[in-house]
Design goal:
alpha+beta, seven-stranded mixed β-sheet, 7 strands, globular
């Protein structure tokens, strides 16, 4: 993957399901960044993909290499909680493909996501970051998130407990 390739950011589409699933499964198998513990098949991930339409408050933005169309990462906004009073809050997340880190992919994805959300009736965005993850904390700070608290030892994966730091930003 050339370091100077142009990157395009666009809404996620059905044809992205397999590569997005593969990317996510890397984080499931190799890291504590997600607390899912078993890899998914594309069919199991289809409801997730379909829950992020091209418009509305719950979006999926995908970064691709302009030449190869390889997926370099994705960002989402998803419901924060299921109860009706939370409808103006979203949880956001970014996943960057292995080997694509340090190229500004996360920043491109978040810029596109927050631009897309600007016209929506939303009040706050929240992000939970499994600790430690300094790169994610820096990314979120660049986009105006501030740390609001940490859940200690809230998730168990790879035979240890992990903290999750929570961040918020106004929308």
């Amino acid at each position: 993957m050339p370091g100077t390739a142009e990157v395009q950011v666009r809404p996620g589409v059905e044809e992205d399901l397999k590569p997005l699933t593969d990317l996510y499964n890397h984080y499931v198998r190799e890291t504590p960044i997600t607390f899912d513990t078993e890899p998914f098949t594309p069919e199991e991930r289809r409801p997730w993909l379909l829950s992020h339409p091209e418009d509305g408050p719950y979006r999926l933005r995908v970064a691709t290499d302009a030449e190869s169309q390889e997926i370099l990462g994705y960002a989402t906004s998803s419901p924060y909680r299921a109860k009706p009073a939370y409808v103006t809050s979203v949880e956001t997340t970014v996943y960057v493909a292995p080997g694509a880190g340090g190229r500004g992919i996360g920043s491109l994805l978040y810029a596109s996501l927050f631009d897309a959300l600007a016209a929506e009736d939303l009040h706050r965005a929240y992000a939970g970051i499994a600790q430690p993850n300094e790169a994610s904390a820096r990314l979120h700070a660049r986009f105006g998130f501030r740390h609001v608290g940490t859940y200690r030892e809230v998730g168990r994966k790879f035979d240890r407990y992990w903290d999750v730091a929570w961040y918020e930003r106004p929308l």
